[in-house]
Amino acid sequence: MTLLTFRFAPSPNGELHLGHAYSALLNQKLASATGGRLLLRIEDIDTTRCTPEFEASIFRDLEWLGLGWEQPVRRQSEHFSDYQAVLDRLISEELVYPAFMSRGEIRAFIADRERRGRDWPRDPDGVPLYPAVDKALTMKERQQRMAENVPFAWRLNVDAAVSRVGTGLSWLEFSDESLSATRTIETRPQDWGDVIVARREIPTSYHLAVVVDDALQGVSHVVRGQDLCSATGVQRLLQELLGLPQSGYFHHRLVLGPDGRKLSKSFADTGLAALREAGASPEDVRRLVGI
Ligand code: GLU
Fold first, then answer.
1. Greater confidence, 272 or 257?
2. Entry pTM
3. Helices then strands (H, E): number in the chain?
4. For the chain, which domains are there?
């Protein structure tokens, strides 16, 4: 029988908090209950927000918690050539296009349409979808702007992508922490519009790097927070386009702050380092998150 493979994949752009502790400990618990593997992946493609100091604090916190993981740890910033190869495929298959509008231009474009009485569509997180303007540019216009060094991001042409793989995309979601039951979740990646899959300077985005790495590392079970559930549709679409195997998913409950809201990396008093300095033990953390 093949071993089940789990992963914990934090981004070193802030301190880990109780929500991360729950996710890491749950992955560890499932790996050990099933005799499976636990991998650690450092998701540091955002070279402006991720720092070596935050990465060092991730290792410190996880070791303190008693998490054990397989070596080597995959650090995404060391694998840009893997993502570039996949991006090149998407470019040559014309499934992505260079999108040149700045944030300000997008805002102004949408405000103008809304002033004229049109409700602009939004993604499940409430972010307005990218206008279809750049998709209509000719190849010559695209090349000219790129040659002029106009900043751009590679966006997925979601309509082209969906017509390539067909509608009716779904994924297998485990229904509870014990992974004993599953259900099928239907998804409509179009709801996210033309998402960014890479940037001019960085040949990937969160979605692309996650699907490439989960496949390369043989991750069979993606166990992560509920806040990432709706993004799974985009990731399933990329898996289909790239012919990558799909994993099963469990999107777990979020650990909430005292105000009932999702924890954030700026929430200092639920940070693991702060708790440790205030005298908490790893057992206290387990108790706090219910593991
Ligand atoms: N790196 C992501 C985060 O820290 C998690 C990605 C994932 O688990 O798919 O939120």
1. 272
2. 0.93
3. 10, 10
4. 1-78+255-291 (3.40.50.620)
